[in-house]
Amino acid sequence: MIAYRSDAFSPSSFGTRRDTMTCMAKGRRSSLRKTIQGKSSEGGGGINQLGGPQSGAAKKTNWVPVSGISSMNDLPQEENSVKVVDTMAKVLTNIATNPTGAVSVVNFAGNTYCFSSSCPSCKFPMIKATVLPPNEETEDKNPRVTCDFCKATYNIKTGAVLKESSPTGLVGGIVKGLFSAKEKEPLPTYDLGEKNGQVLINLP
């Protein structure tokens, strides 16, 4: 005669197995959640951002290689000398005014900043723009950049419009009167970063 163990299907045994299965399910959900979070942060991880401490609200991350810069050595080394770099990024390309998706890059006080290749006020190139030290308007944190033609001045990090840094002069006054917008728009700025020696730009 065969003896059967009734405790295999006893309520206490079933409860133990159910608790074990619940813990396993929670473990799988936790692991899946970590995996999803890890994937959602890909593209921004391991990137050393240039341009000094980050300020303000976090920007959406859309890091892509800069076509016109092959390595960190291609970044401007000379202080306060604006360099125009082609990105070939579609979001920055304009067939009429910016066919190569160019941006301005400048080194100031050991930090590298990136902004629009043209002034949003007068539409002239920013190749001769001047970078100025921080002041009260930028809370003594971010440098300022001023257009050489119309003297429109911006926060180099946020692009916010600031007070003009200097008189426009005769030529600048004529340019400003002809081309400068009455309501100045913010200067488009872009974060630059480095990963494994490659320079990246954070596009909108």
Q: Biggest sheet, open or closed, and with what strands and sense?
A: 7 strands, antiparallel
Give the CA-based shape.
globular
**Intertermini distance:** 79 Å
Q: How many helices in DSSP terms?
A: 2
Classify the beta-strand content into a percent band.
15-25%
Total count of strands = 11
The amount of helix comes to 10-25%
The Rg value, from CA coordinates, equals 27 Å
Poorly predicted segments: 1-14, 20-43
Structural class comes to alpha+beta
**SSE series:** HEEEEEEEEEHEE
What integer is the average pLDDT?
A: 77
What does this structure look like?
The chain has two helices and eleven strands, in the order H-E-E-E-E-E-E-E-E-E-H-E-E. The strands form two sheets. Strands 1, 2, 3, 4, 5, 10 and 11 form a seven-stranded antiparallel beta sheet that branches. The chain has a four-stranded antiparallel beta sheet with strand order 6-7-8-9, with no helix packed on it. It starts with 10 loop residues before the first helix and ends with a strand. By secondary structure, it is α+β, with helices and mostly antiparallel strands.
